[in-house]
Amino acid sequence: MCDEKYILDFKTLEQMKSDVFNKPVEVCALLAEDDIKVLTIDNKTITLGVGKQEGQRASCSYTREYKGNYIYHSHPNESRSYPSSEDIVKVLKTDKLRFSIIATRWGVYVIKPTNKSHEIASMWSDRKQKYYMDKIKKYIDKIGIMENDKGYKEGTYDDIYPDEEELVEKNLEKIRKITFLRLKFCTWRELNI
């Protein structure tokens, strides 16, 4: 997996990829951890998100509070191939998550809080918080511009090329520097899925 401390087994990664390419809406779930730190989707917690409605974005909710848990959600095939700024801020603003995994057309993103990220975010004034949220959105939007310039073609747009992967990594690094979050991206190709 993208995180050296935990393992997503092949079956779980396969299910995540299937959620992206075969479900028309986001899939949300908690992940369960076994004794050797293998994470699997907790099927009892799976919920389907609300599709895009006029003036609103697609979204999903969790059936249980995610305190102390790992959360997962997919971005369906027709959606973004990267985390939204809200996905990043959710992890930054709560001390209840161990990490968040987002599966997209391009691969899997892992967003992990650190003690430093919580400490920094707790000290932000409202004005400073808005400033940093705007910066996060700016870096995320750069990935979105690249994705939009590429254009979506079903069946031919499922992979990310090395120069595009480099642009994603460059912008994630900028977000890491201002938030102190651990952000990791692994392509489906890297994961052998």
Order of helices and strands: EHEEEEHEEHHHE
Percent helix range: 25-40%
Structural class: alpha+beta
What count of structural domains?
1
Strand content: 15-25%
Largest sheet: 8 strands, mixed
The radius of gyration computed from the alpha-carbon positions, rounded to a whole number of angstroms, is 16 Å
Topology overview:
Layout: E1 7-8, H1 10-22, E2 27-33, E3 38-41, E4 47-48, E5 69-74, H2 85-93, E6 97-103, E7 107-112, H3 115-123, H4 126-150, H5 162-179, E8 182-187
Parallel strand pairs: 1-3, 5-6
Antiparallel strand pairs: 2-3, 2-4, 2-5, 6-7, 7-8
Helix pairs in contact: 4-5
Report on the architecture of this protein:
The structure is a single chain. This protein has 193 residues and is an alpha+beta fold. The chain has one domain. Helices cover 38% and strands 21% of the residues. It contains five helices and eight strands; from the N terminus they run E-H-E-E-E-E-H-E-E-H-H-H-E. Helix 4 packs antiparallel against helix 5. The termini are close together.
Defining key terms:
single chain, 193 residues, alpha+beta, 8-stranded mixed sheet, 5 helices, 8 strands, globular
